[in-house]
C-alpha cells in the first residue's frame, strides 16, 4: 500500500498506543489493515515484544463496533489483502498467516459487542479498535479486559475513528495521552487523502452549508461539543487532575440504591475534593447504618455533614436515633430557595429582607446545574480512579438542559440517562448529592427568609411531601 504523508507519520511513530482521528474515507481503516498484517507477520524483535516464544500462537485483534460491521468492512478487505498468503476461517473470522519467526500468527476480527470473549487470551501482540467513539463503556472494557492482555507480550494498540460528540472516547484518550511518552495522537481530514477527488469534497462542503457541524465532524474530523450538554467534556476530564484548595470541612455522601441489590457508594469529601470512594455490594439497612457510624468516627465527619439517599433501603436512615443529625436527600423534592427575586423592586419590601425564589423544577435539577457550573469552571476535583472515574465521565456527559419553557430549569431525567448508558447513573449521583451542601451554604443567616429556609431544611420539612413524590420523581 502506498501511504500518504499523514499515514506515514502514524506508521513511523514508535508509540505503543496511538489515537487516530480521521475524516470519512481518509484512509484510516485501509491503513489499519496493513498495520495488523505487519503486526502478525513481522518478527517479534522488530515489534519490540517482551518475548519471542508464543505457546498458544501470536495473536492480533481487530475490533469493529459489531460483528456484522467486522465482516462487511474489515474481513473482506483482509481477505483481499492476504489472498494466497493467509488461510481464512469464515465462521470465526480468523486469518492464519506465517510470520518471520517461522511460526504462524492468527488475526482475529470481531465485534466489540462480544468483548467478553477476549477476556484472558494470551500471546496478544496488538489490538485495533475501530470507530472508537461508538464503543459504549469503552474505558471500563479497556482496563478490565483488553489492557491486561499485554501483560505477557508488551503489545500495542491503536484507537481509530471519526469523532462523535455523543460518546467522546477519542477526545478523552487524546487528553490523557498528552503527557505520556509511550502514546501519540494523530489527526487528518478527508482532504488529506490524495485518492479522494477534491471536487467531490468541494461539492460536499457546499451541500453541508446549512449543516456545517456535520461537515466539520465527518470530513474535517473535528471534535464537536454537544450544544445542549450541561458539562463541557474537557472540563469533566480535568476534574480528575484539578487542584483545589482543601477544606477542613469533611463530608460523607451515601448513595443507597433502591432495594439494596445495586452497589452502595460511600463518597468522602474535603471541601470540593473527593478524596475517597468505596463501593459495597448488597448491604441491608442495618449494615449501612453501622458502616455510616463507623466511617463517621474514623474520618471525623460530623453527622450534620452526612447526606444519605433516602429512597428504598435508605429511606428510614435519617430517622434512626443512632444516626440523629444526618440528612435525608430525595431528588424529587422542591428546589431550595437561595436567590433574591429579581422581579421585585430593590429596597421595596413588606418584610425586612427580599423574597427568595428559585428557577429549578426540583432539587435534583438544581444540583445538576450547580455541579455543571463548578465542573466547567474547574472548581471541583476528585481523586477517584478506575471504573468509578469511567462511569462518572460517561454519566455526566449525558446530561442536557431539558427545560420546557415553563420558567423552571430542568435537567435530563434519570430514567433517560439510564436508557442512554444502559444502567443507573449511581456513581455520579454522589456528586449531585454533594451539591446539596454547596446550595445550602448560600443561605445567609442575616436574611429573614434565609432563616426560614434554613429552618425548613434542618427540620427536614421537605420530607413531608410524600404525596407529590411519585408525580415529581426522576430518581
What does this structure look like?
By secondary structure, this protein is α/β, with parallel strands linked by helices. The chain has two domains: 5-224, 3-Layer(aba) Sandwich (Rossmann fold), CATH 3.40.50.300; 238-472, Nucleotidyltransferase, domain 5, CATH 3.30.420. 33% of the residues lie in helices and 17% in strands. It has helices at 5-12, 28-41, 67-81, 138-146, 169-177, 198-207, 212-218, 233-238, 285-299, 363-376, 387-396, 414-421, 426-440, 448-458, 466-472; strands spanning 17-22, 58-64, 87-89, 94-98, 104-111, 124-129, 156-161, 183-188, 250-255, 263-270, 273-281, 306-309, 327-329, 339-340, 356-357, 381-382. An eight-stranded mixed sheet has the order 3-4-5-2-6-7-1-8, sandwiched between helices. Strand 10 and strand 11 form a beta hairpin. Helix 2 packs across helix 3 (67-81) and helix 10 (363-376) crosses helix 13 (426-440). The longest helix has 15 residues, at 67-81.
Amino acid at each position: 500500500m502506498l501511504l500518504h504523508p499523514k499515514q506515514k507519520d502514524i506508521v513511523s511513530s514508535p508509540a505503543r498506543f496511538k489515537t487516530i482521528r480521521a475524516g470519512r474515507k481518509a484512509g484510516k481503516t485501509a491503513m489499519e489493515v496493513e498495520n495488523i498484517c505487519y503486526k502478525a507477520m513481522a518478527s517479534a524483535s522488530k515489534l519490540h515484544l517482551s518475548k519471542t516464544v508464543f505457546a498458544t500462537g501470536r495473536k492480533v485483534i481487530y475490533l469493529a463496533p459489531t460483528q456484522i460491521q467486522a465482516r462487511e468492512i474489515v474481513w473482506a478487505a483482509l481477505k483481499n489483502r492476504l489472498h494466497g498468503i493467509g488461510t481464512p476461517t469464515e465462521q470465526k473470522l480468523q486469518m492464519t498467516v506465517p510470520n518471520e519467526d517461522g511460526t504462524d500468527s492468527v488475526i482475529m476480527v470481531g465485534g466489540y459487542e462480544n468483548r467478553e470473549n477476549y477476556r484472558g487470551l494470551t500471546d496478544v501482540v496488538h489490538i485495533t479498535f475501530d470507530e472508537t467513539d461508538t464503543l459504549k463503556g469503552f474505558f471500563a472494557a479497556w482496563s478490565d479486559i483488553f489492557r491486561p492482555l499485554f501483560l505477557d507480550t508488551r503489545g500495542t494498540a491503536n484507537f481509530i475513528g471519526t469523532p462523535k460528540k455523543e460518546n467522546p472516547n477519542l477526545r478523552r484518550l487524546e487528553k490523557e495521552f498528552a503527557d505520556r511518552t509511550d502514546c501519540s495522537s494523530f489527526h487528518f481530514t478527508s482532504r488529506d487523502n490524495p485518492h479522494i477527488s477534491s471536487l467531490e469534497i468541494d461539492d460536499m462542503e457546499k451541500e453541508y452549508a446549512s449543516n456545517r457541524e456535520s461537515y466539520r465532524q465527518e470530513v474535517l474530523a473535528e471534535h464537536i461539543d454537544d450544544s445542549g450538554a450541561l458539562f463541557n467534556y474537557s472540563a469533566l476530564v480535568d476534574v480528575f487532575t484539578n487542584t483545589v484548595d482543601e477544606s477542613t470541612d469533611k463530608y460523607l455522601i451515601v448513595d443507597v440504591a433502591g432495594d439494596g441489590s445495586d452497589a452502595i457508594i460511600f463518597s468522602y469529601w474535603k471541601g470540593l475534593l473527593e478524596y475517597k470512594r468505596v463501593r459495597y455490594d448488597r448491604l441491608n439497612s442495618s449494615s449501612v447504618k453501622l458502616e455510616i457510624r463507623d466511617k463517621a468516627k474514623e474520618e471525623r465527619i460530623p453527622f450534620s455533614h452526612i447526606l444519605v439517599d433516602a429512597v428504598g433501603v435508605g429511606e428510614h436512615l435519617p430517622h434512626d436515633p443512632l444516626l440523629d443529625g444526618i440528612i435525608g436527600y430525595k431528588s424529587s423534592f422542591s428546589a431550595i430557595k437561595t436567590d433574591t427575586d429579581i422581579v421585585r423592586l430593590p429596597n421595596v419590601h413588606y418584610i425586612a429582607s427580599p423574597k427568595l425564589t428559585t428557577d429549578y423544577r426540583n432539587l435534583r435539577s438544581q444540583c445538576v446545574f450547580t455541579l455543571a457550573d463548578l465542573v466547567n469552571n474547574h472548581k471541583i476535583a476528585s481523586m477517584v480512579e478506575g471504573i468509578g472515574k469511567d462511569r462518572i465521565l460517561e454519566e455526566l456527559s449525558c446530561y442536557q438542559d431539558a427545560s420546557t419553557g415553563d420558567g423552571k430549569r430542568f435537567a435530563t431525567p434519570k430514567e433517560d440517562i439510564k436508557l442512554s448508558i444502559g444502567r443507573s447513573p449511581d456513581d455520579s449521583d454522589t456528586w449531585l448529592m454533594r451539591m446539596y451542601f454547596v446550595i445550602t451554604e448560600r443561605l445567609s443567616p442575616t436574611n429573614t427568609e434565609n432563616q426560614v429556609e434554613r429552618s425548613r431544611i434542618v427540620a427536614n420539612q421537605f420530607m413531608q411531601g410524600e404525596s407529590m413524590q411519585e408525580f415529581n420523581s426522576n430518581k
